[in-house]
Specification:
heterodimer, A: alpha+beta, Alpha-Beta Plaits, two-stranded antiparallel sheet, two-stranded antiparallel ribbon, 13% strand, B: 262 residues, alpha/beta, binds thiamine diphosphate, binds iron/sulfur cluster
């Protein structure tokens, strides 16, 4: 799965930058078409749900999605699935 | 399926401000409903008036956006007309505890089989940040420019005393705990009341040195105290910070309830 932020919904509150255990979300620096500083994704392939959703068949972690007050965070299926080389930091 | 499937995508983005907790609470409630496996066609969301009360408008099921303070009265009607329906109420602190205060205590007394989620942002958000019955002493609002001087309602204590079968409090920072508390509420026959401390960066945060959305989240994280710890401190006679937000489950009982399918 691939982590995506819906730019049309995000209002740039930065709550996602606070809750992700991998700190994948970084405060945005460039304003989009609506003037919102949408967070940038730092190596999103580290996300638990990106890596393991397919294996377990359910959402794993997902705390950013539950927290995002603007329902802007989601995952899209990658086709074909490309296993990326992942370095997990502890 | 995920909670996102319960949303009316065509109505998004919603009107709530950037960082308003109402969106998070909506997510957690829908996640609980989804985890419970409820049928969208047999589920009704009811609300009164306020920012918080706009929530049902973003959900794809049937819903009622009623008059100010009357969400519980309408929800009682829905539930008694057809007790097989699942009814969830979204309400604000002003909607529930000010204009709707009497409906609140009597719904708890009757113990009607509803799940009530109160998005308590400590002020009237929609009308410009006036003080509400839950504004803490000393807090600044449009109508308390020198700091609120009246004691605030403890909504949880009120619901427990009035007879609700399940009562819990969490904050918008505690997303998983909140989801679980709402799910317990959905499963408990009788009235279930979940108070959620919500951040209103626009009308509360701006006046009370919590301007940044992340400051509000940090405030909830650091000021929250689990009920077990609070009880222990009280039992040992140790001091409890006056601004602690006591979170957790306060009551779960099985008193006779109204509107339950026999
Ligand atoms: C009978 C009536 N009185 C007053 C109002 C004005 N009014 C609209 S929203 C609101 C307060 C809402 O506050 P709250 O329930 O805390 O919700 P929030 O907006 O903070 O989520 C008031 C007083 C109204 N709409 N109807
Ligand atoms: S939590 Fe949601 S709305 Fe807020 S910055 Fe992150 S993606 Fe955007
Ligand atoms: S005014 Fe406050 S409660 Fe209303 S949408 Fe904005 S942040 Fe939320």
């Amino acid at each position: 799965m691939k982590l995506v932020i819906d730019e049309n919904r995000c209002k740039g509150c930065n709550l996602c930058t606070l809750v992700c255990p991998y700190r994948i979300f970084r405060p945005g620096t460039r304003a989009n078409r609506k003037g919102v500083l949408v967070p940038e994704l730092d190596r999103p392939e580290r996300c638990t749900n990106c890596r393991l959703q397919g294996l377990y068949g359910r959402t794993l972690c997902g705390v950013c999605q539950l927290t995002c007050p603007d329902q802007a965070i989601g995952w899209v299926r990658e086709r074909p699935y490309e296993p990326a080389k992942i370095e997990v930091e502890y | 399926m995920s909670f996102a499937d319960w949303l009316r995508a065509d109505r998004l983005p919603h009107i709530w401000c950037s960082g308003c907790s109402n969106g998070t609470i909506l997510n957690c409630t829908l996640a609980a409903v989804e985890a419970e496996g409820w049928d969208p066609d047999r589920t009704v969301f009811v609300s009164g008036i306020g920012c918080s009360s706009r929530a049902p408008g973003y959900i794809s099921t049937d819903s009622l956006h009623t008059t100010h303070g009357r969400a519980l009265a309408f929800a009682t009607g829905v539930k008694l007309a057809d007790p097989s329906l699942n009814v969830v109420v979204f309400t604000g602190d002003g909607d529930l505890a000010a204009i709707g205060g009497n409906h609140f205590i009597h719904a708890c007394r009757r113990n009607i089989d509803l799940t009530v989620v109160c998005m308590n942002n400590l002020i009237y958000g929609m009308t410009g940040g006036q003080g509400s019955p839950t504004t803490p002493i000393g807090a600044l609002s449009t109508t308390t420019p020198y700091g609120a001087s009246e004691p605030a309602f403890d909504l949880v204590a009120l619901a427990v005393a009035a007879g609700a079968n399940h009562v819990a409090r969490w904050t918008a920072y505690h997303v998983r705990e909140l989801e679980r508390a709402v799910q317990t509420g959905l499963e408990t026959p009788g009235l279930s009341f979940i108070e959620v401390r919500a951040g209103c960066p626009t009308n509360y945060g701006r006046k009370n040195r919590l301007r940044e959305v992340t400051d509000l989240a940090e405030y909830f994280r650091t000021k929250s105290m689990l009920k077990a710890k609070f009880d222990r401190l009280v039992a040992e006679g140790r001091p409890v910070p006056s601004d602690a937000i006591v979170v957790g489950e306060f009551v779960r009982r099985s008193n006779p309830a109204m509107g339950v399918v026999p």
